[in-house]
Amino acid sequence: MILRSLVYGALLCWCTPAFAIIDGLKADVDAYRSYVSIRATSPFPSHNGKEINACGGTLIAPQWVLTAAHCWPSYEAALKGDKPVFVGVNLGPNGLFEQKRRIVDYVLAPTKPTHERLDAALLKLEEDATRYGAQIASIFEGNLAIGTATITVGLGQGHEGDSLLYYESRVTDSDLCDSPRVDYDARLDFCVGVPGSTQRAGYGDSGGPLYILGGPNDDEYQVAGIVKGGVKANATGIEETENIRYTDVNKLQDWISTTTGCTFGTSSNASVLAGELICARSILNAPLSGTYWKINMIYGHDIGVVNNKREPQIIFGGGDETTLMATVGCNRILADFTQNGATLSIGPARATKMACIGDVARAENDLLDLLKRVSSFQIIGDNLVLIASDGNVLAELSAVYL
Asked: Positive or negative CA dihedral for 76, 248, 263, 7?
């Protein structure tokens, strides 16, 4: 598990009572495939337990989502053993997501010198979301000058099937968002709004992206901000302009690199875009012979060392040997394996006859079952993912040696 900041302080939610982007227009989902949705069961009795969008986010690397720290309650349960928390990726025109991938960790941004926390967080997904049609957004590194055109997208607190909405606005003077009623720091945040406009973000849009057209031809939607919340242009009335505060993503680059282990492209590197996060590339056909892997997860359940027994592991024989050895701490399991590129098939397993009990027995049964089901694999950095024929992830492992 990645080390996280331990204290967030009081939960902050700055949005005014609204349940979607106000006066937004229906978005072309193909243009915003880096947008993701943090999914949750609705707390409202009238929704009868339906799933809603709790917060938005942006895919900035194959397994990493950038969102707001104040969305913490929507993903904190992912690490408490409660119901798994999922991120919806690759939204279709019908309002349904191609896939929902489980959140396996999160990291809150560090505190500022004033002891307030930067309103940003990174969510780690169980696997590469681009396998399901999601796209990665690079980070806008240009000047956020007053008048710069912006686009904000979001689902609000919409149900499955609701349309992604957007609205266009412009960067405005920081003084219009600097209020004692809200958290705003002009060194790390920026303000967006147009006088007289009723368009703005609402509940559920927090954590989602603000895009600016950038890239070599100014035709790429690059993420520049994270939705924080609104501040009214004046203190009276309910229809007046509400400016929206955003965390400046460009100011987070060092923290993002340190947390993810990825690096940002620069304008001097012609092979990648400036602001593009470059991570360990997926390897689809690396030889497994002679490799040793620690088992971290099977069927969504964490696997650990039990009663000081052997580390959960799979070892693929090297050279001419085509036998693997596996254990979760009880019996020693042997099976023949055949690899052809990224395809992996494993023959009938043979095991010692020790009696296993409790969680170890369950884990061993799951291990025996997945060895029958595995049909392919993917190596991402130092991690091995075993995959079933239907594309579902069976197990996640990390390299002991390659």
From this structure: negative
Burial of 8 (0-12, 13-18, 19+ CB in 10 A): middle
Per DSSP, the chain holds a count of helices (H) and strands (E) of 3, 26
Q: Which residues of 14-43 are buried (b: 16+ CB within 10 A; e: fewer)?
A: bbeebebbbebeebebeebbbbbbbbbebe
pTM to 2 decimals? 0.65
Task: Select from 331, 335, 332 the least CA-distant residue to 321.
Answer: 335
Q: Rg of the chain's alpha carbons, rounded to an integer?
A: 23
**Residue 18: closest CA among 209, 244, 195:** 244
Question: Of the candidates 340, 347, 335, 346, which has an alpha carbon nearest to the alpha carbon of residue 286?
Answer: 340
Q: What is the pLDDT along the chain (402 residues), one digit of tens a residue?
A: 343 332 333 233 333 333 467 888 999 999 999 999 998 776 667 667 677 788 999 999 988 999 999 998 888 876 665 566 778 887 888 878 878 888 888 888 886 545 456 899 999 888 888 888 889 999 998 899 999 999 999 988 777 778 899 999 999 999 998 877 678 888 899 999 998 888 888 878 999 999 999 887 888 899 999 999 876 554 444 445 688 999 999 999 989 988 887 877 654 443 345 567 777 555 556 789 999 999 999 998 888 776 556 789 999 998 777 999 999 988 999 999 999 888 899 999 999 988 888 888 889 999 999 999 999 888 876 788 898 888 788 998 988 865
